[in-house]
Specification:
heterodimer, A: 17 helices, globular, B: 371 residues, alpha+beta, Creatine Kinase, Chain A, domain 2, two-stranded antiparallel ribbon, 13 strands
């Protein structure tokens, strides 16, 4: 009903989603600063807490619809971070120091095996166990890059952390793909589809990666203005993987690796994709915990704890076994093993992807994984801070 | 504290020390890995030794006592290969060059050694700005007095050595216009410059004890002179050179000093006066700023020649001595360099012009160093 006073807002006022997003970011920023300035806790711990409060486990101010829109942002943010991570993986290094690949394989295999054992002891179904064990291999690329940037850390542990994270993220995606063939067969029973699915996904993602990397090589990355072109290329690649139902995570990570290793000249862009990239990272930390619900703890909390314990021990053992021959001290090995613990948005997206393909999949998967992500996202940043201080690699 | 006694050494033997840069292989900025490198090389058998330097981005290698060019090349080759192999294991790059092209001095970390902490405490930010990389050459002297004679006569040739080794045109991402900008960092230290003019060891001892009694210095190590005596080695140490980009050039420059020493001590072509130093800073500046094209003023007759011309004349005078010392090949390398006027600073500017990236320039520096 129009009236002379329709220029006035309706009462009560209804804030739109921009309001809630703005408020959430404001609170996340404040909480992050409070953590850092008052308690010397990593800022990202603060972001996680706000995500938790904003989501269904807290005040629920961000609803399911908004969280769904946020999925796209997460894909972009994580895609860019994986691209950056991949572009730091020097394959020549692995060739000249094969103990690195031994370390990487050891920590990944041990993680898979011990998590399988731990979850079987907790009576989790075998299929859910293998999915979780595959995802558990990956260290959070987001947290690793965010913490490296925040601490300005450099040195052998930091370098190896980046390399091992790039590798174990890759293993996790591929292994999950292979595990899902089994699910595919169980769900759809079409052997041809089962066999071609991983082939399509892996080869298709690699093809997108190759095209993206070769296109980036034509851009002069030293030039600030070409940065727009670069971001454009990355977004297009993400969109194409979406359209073709390929793996964004695998495509962007591999694109980074190809970019770094096809041309020996340093390919650089503003670290962390500049301020815009950093904002996206904050969004990533907030959004990851938005869909957490307290009921998950009751359902999967104990199994999550068992998984976390097994995973941390496995990573530590895998790294320590080859620390000496790979050229670091046991002290550095200890720090490296512990810094591999973080788990966050990358794992969350792998879980969500599984439910996208198989909507009726065991709800235990989400319960266990989100409980684990909650704990690891809130506590491992501190562990990484301590470890990097312990071996003198942090400068901030 | 008294000055150590001078232990005579075999004349014209020499040792080379090179401070080299440790960079990452991502953006080729300086990185922190000296202690990691040390851990990997400490059990390897090498001629001479490898040690930590003031910041974690720097490592120093030193040959044993050498007598000729080929031995120096072999020693340096072994040291270089041991370090490069360890560096590959750690995914880091090593390179020569007097400065890092684009590092920010404030990012540097002081190595964890008492002496380095002391220097950092005393000199403040200068200590971190002192992340520069030099070549030092020790020349054996038969006795204390001849070490002082050699020190002051070599001073005349300081511009040659600066221009030949210059490899630091870039500082903190900028082209300084200098061939050797590194020496400007050294000049900031209060005890830098030239040694006092005295030709008798007793005179030098007197100077040293006076300085000790002022409390300004505590040992010979506190003098950052261009050339200084090293009594316990029985040498004079020439310290003005930038670290060249390759071991071949480093060895050739060391042999140039060796041949000069023989020429100066045996032929005694110079008579030395305090007044020779009137033009010292001017000549030194010309070499730093303009390299081989810089002007060199002869302190005794005021004659002006380019440094390149002066080196070519000197090379002729050194020929018989080089032959005696078995280092003729070294002088051939240098003659070519001077004729083409292409020292390492020129090479670095060329690469930068071609590639448009200092990151890529440092990467190519690493390639040059490891081959």
């Amino acid at each position: 009903m129009k009236s002379a006073f329709s220029y006035l807002p309706h009462w009560p006022l209804v804030p739109d989603s921009v309001f809630w997003v703005g408020l959430t970011l404001l609170m996340a920023g404040l909480c992050g600063e409070l953590c850092w300035k008052a308690w010397r806790l990593p800022r990202i711990t603060g972001y996680g807490v706000i995500g938790l409060l904003a989501g269904s486990a807290g005040f629920g101010v961000i609803d399911g619809a908004l969280a769904n829109d946020a999925r796209f942002l997460m894909d972009v943010a994580l895609g860019m971070l994986l691209f950056e991570l991949g572009s730091r993986l020097n394959l020549r290094w692995i060739r000249t120091n094969p103990w690195l690949i031994a370390t990487s394989l050891a920590e990944a295999t041990l993680t898979f095996a011990t998590v399988v054992i731990a979850l079987q002891l907790m009576n989790v179904s075998l299929m859910t166990t293998t999915v979780i064990a595959s995802i558990a291999i990956a260290t959070s690329p987001t947290m690793v890059i965010q913490l490296k940037t925040e601490l300005k850390s450099e040195g052998q542990v930091t370098e190896r952390l980046l390399a091992l994270t790039a590798l174990n993220s890759m293993y996790a995606v591929i292994l999950l793909e292979l595990v899902s063939t089994w699910m595919h067969q169980e769900y759809y029973g079409n052997l041809f589809a089962t066999l071609t699915e991983p082939l399509y996904l892996i080869l298709g993602s690699l093809a997108v990666a190759y095209v993206l990397a070769r296109s980036c090589q034509r851009v002069n990355l030293q030039d600030e203005h070409s940065f727009v072109i670069l971001i454009g290329l990355v977004l297009l690649a993400i969109a194409i993987t979406h359209m073709l139902e390929l793996s964004t995570l695998l495509a962007l990570l591999t694109a980074g690796i190809i970019l770094k290793n096809f041309d020996p000249r340093p390919q650089l862009w503003p670290a962390h994709f500049g301020t815009a990239g950093w904002l996206l990272t904050v969004v990533l930390f907030v959004v990851t915990l938005i869909s957490f619900q307290w009921s998950y703890i009751a359902l999967g909390g104990l199994a999550a704890l068992a998984m976390i314990g097994a995973r941390m021990l496995a990573k530590l053992a895998g790294v320590l076994a080859f620390a000496k021959p790979s050229g670091i001290s046991m002290k550095q090995g200890l720090a490296l093993g512990l810094t591999l613990a973080p788990m966050s948005a990358f794992a969350y997206l792998l879980v969500e992807n599984t439910y996208n393909l198989y909507p009726d999949f065991d709800p235990n998967l989400r319960a266990i994984m989100l409980s684990a992500i909650l704990i690891l996202q809130l506590f491992t940043p501190l562990l990484v801070y301590w470890s990097l201080s312990f071996i003198g690699e942090r400068r901030q | 504290m008294n000055l150590e006694t001078f232990n005579p050494s075999k004349p014209f033997t020499f040792g080379i020390e090179l401070e080299i840069q440790i960079v990452n292989t991502h953006d080729y900025d300086l990185t922190k890995a000296a202690s990691d490198l040390m851990r990997l090389v400490k059990d390897q058998k090498v001629p001479g030794d490898i040690k930590l330097e003031i910041t974690e981005s720097m490592i120093e290698l030193a040959t044993g006592i050498c007598t000729n060019y080929h031995q120096a090349l072999t020693d340096l080759g072994v040291l270089r290969d041991v370090l490069v192999t360890a560096a590959e294991k750690l995914n880091i790059g090593l390179c020569g060059g007097g400065t890092h092209a684009f590092q920010q001095w404030s990012d540097r970390q002081i190595s964890d050694e008492p002496r380095f902490h002391y220097i950092s405490e005393l000199y403040g930010y200068l200590a971190k700005q002192f992340t520069v990389f030099g070549q030092h050459v020790h020349i054996g002297c038969p006795d204390a007095d001849s070490s002082l004679f050699l020190l002051h006569s070599l001073s005349r040739y300081i511009p040659h050595l600066i221009a030949l080794s210059a490899s630091s045109p870039f500082v903190q991402g900028m082209d300084t216009g200098f061939h050797s900008a590194r020496l400007n960092s050294v000049f900031a230290f209060p005890m830098s410059g030239r040694a006092p003019f005295t030709l008798a060891w007793s005179g030098f001892e007197e100077y040293f004890s006076k300085m000790i009694s002022t409390g300004v210095i505590t040992s010979m190590k506190d003098f950052y002179w261009d050339i200084r005596p090293k009594p316990n080695f029985g040498t004079v140490e020439v310290r003005v050179m930038d670290t060249p980009l390759s071991i071949e050039k480093a060895a050739a420059i060391a042999c140039y000093i060796q041949a000069l020493a023989r020429y100066l001590l045996l032929d005694k072509p110079l008579t030395l006066h305090e007044d020779d130093y009137l033009v010292y800073n001017f000549n030194r500046f010309e070499a730093c700023r303009f390299g081989l094209a810089g002007m060199n003023v002869n302190p005794q007759n005021g004659e002006r020649r380019t440094i390149a011309q002066d080196i070519l004349i000197t090379l002729d005078a050194l020929a018989p001595h080089a032959q005696e010392l078995d280092c003729t090949d070294a002088l051939v390398v240098l003659r070519k360099l001077v004729q083409a006027q292409t020292n390492d600073a020129v090479w670095l500017r060329d690469i930068y012009r071609k590639e448009g990236s200092l990151h890529e320039t440092v990467r190519q520096q690493c390639l040059l160093w490891s081959h």
